[in-house]
From TrEMBL:
Organism per entry: Lentzea indica
EC number in record: 2.1.1.171
GO MF entries: 16S rRNA (guanine(966)-N(2))-methyltransferase activity
NCBIfam families for the chain: 16S rRNA (guanine(966)-N(2))-methyltransferase RsmD
Name of protein: 16S rRNA (Guanine(966)-N(2))-methyltransferase RsmD
Stretch forming the signal peptide: none
Entries under Pfam families matching the protein: Cons_hypoth95
Record key words, sorted: Methyltransferase, Transferase
Keyword Methyltransferase carried by entry: yes
PROSITE patterns per UniProt: N6_MTASE
């Protein structure tokens, strides 16, 4: 069972697509958001959840005060589950893009304060690097990027202008943090 850990929707359950996704565990999400909230205030933040699956990361951010979340998911069934979860949770402040992360990052649009990238473990390092590099123009000043990978994958190749902040392992999962460098 996947549920929202804290905030206005804390304890509420999320539907999970029938196959092809790997929701971030409650334990990892709780630790991830504890660290995130020590770095920034989520109130009013614009969040991007790439490779969204059930949307657990983006919905957790909304529950904790984010202003808007954009979910990018290439699988049509998973995108339908995202729409259902948003409706069930009462979050109208969402955008759901049923397309690949690679295609999404090449479009113009809003800038984001927080980006979650939790690609399937089968996504290779080069493909992930291409997505992260494509994000640069969509990142707000001091934006935080959080990448979840298999522990064996190693740290992602951060794009120019993004400094690695920290890395933490949780069993088979590793979470890597980067932040846009300020010009000041």
């Amino acid at each position: 069972m996947t549920r929202i850990v804290a905030g206005t929707a804390g304890g509420r359950r999320l539907k999970v697509p029938p196959k092809g996704t790997r929701p971030t565990s409650d334990r990892v999400r709780e630790a991830l958001f504890s660290s995130l909230e020590s770095l920034m205030d989520l109130d009013g933040a614009k969040v991007l959840d790439l490779y969204a699956g059930s949307g657990a990361l983006g919905f957790e951010a909304l529950s904790r005060g984010a202003e808007h979340a954009t979910f990018v998911e290439s699988d049509k069934r998973a995108a339908e589950v995202l729409k259902s979860n948003a409706k069930e949770l009462g979050f109208a402040n969402t955008t759901i893009a049923n397309r690949t992360a690679e295609a999404y990052v090449t479009t113009e649009g809003d800038k984001f304060d927080v980006v979650f990238a939790d690609p399937p473990y089968s996504v290779g390092d080069d493909e992930l690097a291409k997505v992260l590099h494509g994000l640069v123009d969509r990142l707000a000043e001091d934006a935080i990027l959080i990448v979840e990978r298999a522990s064996r994958s190693g740290e992602p190749a951060w794009p120019d202008g993004v400094e690695p902040l920290r890395a933490k392992r949780y069993g088979d999962t590793a979470v890597y943090w980067g932040q846009v460098r300020s010009d000041g």
